Amino acid sequence: MKVTCSPEQQSKVVVVTPRLPDIVDRHESSSLVPSIERLASRVARHAPPDCPSAAKYCSQGNGLCIDVADQESCSGRTVHELCSGDRCTCCMKHPCSDTPWPCENQHGFCLNLMDRDKCAGRAVDALCHNTHCTCCVKEECSSWTPPMCLEVNGVCMNRLDANRCFGRLAKQLCNSRHCTCCMKDRCSDTPDSCLRENGVCINKMDSPQCYGRTEDHLCPGPHCTCCKKHRCENTPRPCSSRGGTCINIMDTCSGIKVKELCHNYKCTCCIP
Questions:
Q1: What is the phi/psi pair of residue 155, to 5°?
Q2: Residue 106, Cβ neighbours under 10 Å: how many?
Q3: I want to staple 219 with a disulfide (CB 3.0 to 4.6 A). Which of 36, 84, 224, 239 is the partner?
């Protein structure tokens, strides 16, 4: 018998699609269950294996566990026994610890091809004498520091050199994703222990600008050092004849400074 529904009745019809467990329960004795089991088995065989990348014995050898199907992408050697599971193998990455001259001459260092995304610059494969290695030529960041970094007593540096920052990092203040702004701690308070040595406290990153010798323990804070300024006690005739006195380059002068009129590179002639 054919049943005809009016348009109003058709709008009220709700089609219910039973969930898979409901189907199995209702047709337990049918041939559907074996077919589902075969499907589950097939999915399990092709599912990605559980290869923990930080397996203990594998990671100790600078390795990571990968699918055996991907072992051709391993830049090193594979050791199957160091990872659990039949479909996992340990890729022990080549250390690339030696940096040959062609790479070093570009101010670069060699790293494993699998770590090339960690290079804060450009990777040049041909400069390392190993097929597993690439030369990471770090981007030069300190040559130009934008005002927004300078305003917070900062300097842009390559993010790979972040451990050399004696202060805090703010990567958004530099104009490259490979660079970060090192906001140097200000060492403005100079204790008497440093002053008595004709010194001034400066950030350790500014040590190359110290015209004297540095001594860390005379200033508070792990990021500060005491710059014991060289005493410019002798004023040669070229400076004195112009009414000047030799002072340390770091000292202030109420007139003009003429560096060439003093014999020591740490001194300059201050002419009022």
A1: -145, 140
A2: 16
A3: 224
Phi, psi (degrees; rounded to nearest 5) at 94: -60, 135
Rounded distance between C-alpha atoms, residue 225 and residue 167, angstroms:
13
Q: Helix, strand, or coil here: 112? A: strand
Q: Which long-range contacts (CB under 8 A, 24 or more apart) does 256-260 make?
A: none
Return the percent helix, strand and coil in the chain, to nearest 5: 30, 25, 40
Cβ atoms of 136 and 153 within 8 Å: the answer is: no
CA–CA distance, 185 with 204 (Å, rounded to integer): 9
Residues contacting 66, CB < 8 A, separation 6+:
51, 53, 73, 74, 88, 89, 90, 91
First to last CA, the chain: 118
Task: For strands 224-229 and 199-203, give the pairing.
Answer: antiparallel
pLDDT at residue 30 greater than cutoff 90: no
Which one-letter amino acid corresponds to residue 1? Answer: M
Helix (H, G, I), strand (E, B) or coil at 76: strand
Q: Which two tokens stand for residue 53?
A: 């990348």
Segment 174-200, tens digit of pLDDT: 999 999 999 999 998 999 999 999 999
> Is the pLDDT confidence value at 123 over 60?
yes
Helical H runs in 12-105? Answer: 20-26, 32-46, 56-60, 101-104
Chain-centroid distance of CA 238 in Å reads: 51
Q: What pLDDT, on a 0 to 100 scale, did the predictor assign at position 84?
A: 85
Considering the entire predicted model, what is its pTM?
0.66
Show the tokens assigned to 137: 């030529």
